[in-house]
Write a structure and sequence with these properties.
This protein is of the alpha+beta class. Helix content is about 35%, strand content about 15%. The strands form 3 sheets. It has a 7-stranded mixed beta sheet with strand order 2-3-4-10-5-6-7, with helices on both faces. A two-stranded antiparallel ribbon has the order 1-11. Strands 8-9 form a two-stranded antiparallel sheet. Helix 2 (about 25-40) packs across helix 4 (about 85-105). Bound molecules: 1,4-dihydronicotinamide adenine dinucleotide (NAI).
Length: about 350
Amino acid sequence: MKVTREKLKELMATKLHKAGLTQEHADIVADVLVHADARGYHSHGAMRVEYYSERINKGGTNCNPNFNFQKTGPCTAIFDGDNAAGHVVAKLGMDEAIKMAKENGVAIVGMRRMGHSGALSYFVQQAAEQNLVALTLCQSDPMAVPYGGAEPYYGTNPIAFGAPGKNGENIIIDMATTVQAWGKVLDARSKNKPIEEGWAVDSNGQTTTDPFKVSSLLPIAGPKGYGLMMMVDILSGIMLNLPFGNKVTSMYHDLTEDRNLGQLHIVIDPECFTDLESFKENIAQTMQDLNNIKPATGFDKVYYPGQRSGIREKKANEEGIDIVDSIYEYLVSDVIHNNAYDHKGAFAK
Ligand code: NAI
């Protein structure tokens, strides 16, 4: 069914508030989730509200956190999120990074002790809307093999990058460092269909197309993606003195416990290097150049990163967002689950 962006955001915020978040935090989480749904990343939108609500209800998300923002240098800061909802910590962390980058040209803000922050494009878009370039990266549940390994060590450790173009059109790269999300394997299981070669491995580290034999996901581009996920873990985990590698907590392991995740925002004012107008002009030119590249056989067009999500978002804003009926029914109900997700383990749901 289709729901307007405003209505979907309101339904999600109401449910999250009912589960225990303050209205202010519920509104922020819902804003990040509806951004994901509108841009077509349904895996990080309304479908997560059931899980988040159970976690909030069971105490694994701090609803009354004591945030601590500490400047550690002219351009650096640590934001201790006290295990509040990750979306809130990442958004407020970016607000601070934007202020610092406007004052100093560059800001690096490390967010410690936070929950899952969802689709990272939201945070780099905050910066792009302020004419700033941004990079954000974060830890996630260990479910990917290191290159050559047969057991998981790193998470899907995503990276997002944003740069402002003209007329509110920005380049937004937003990607996990695994070939595919775990959700795609689950989808194949539910449909009893094979997965594509190169997504995942079995318990011997051999690639498999049988979704029921999958024990870990594969990094993008073999050793190169493995290197990227390691970089993410170093910058948003080890450097912030947080659990790292396979010691990072799992989303569904224990919903009463803190996640203690890390995320790092790097924000740069392009005016430190060039004048803003020519920067934005050249970004717009890049977008156009890419769109003008002759498409390969089987492709309709070359898109720049984030373009297709932007098109989906525009359409969703005008026509509403497609939501699975059962998710809508959950959102309008009074239900907060107490045992739907707990102790399922990273690979069980
Ligand atoms: P994806 O594979 O759908 O897209 C990856 C990137 O490729 C995007 O920048 C997209 O704009 C670009 N792209 C895709 N098709 C394109 C095309 N035809 N032409 C040009 N560019 C194209 O995204 P992925 O890796 O599945 O991630 C989905 C979401 O999950 C993201 O929002 C990510 O932040 C989020 N995520 C969050 C995690 C967390 O722990 N917070 C963990 C993992 C992912």
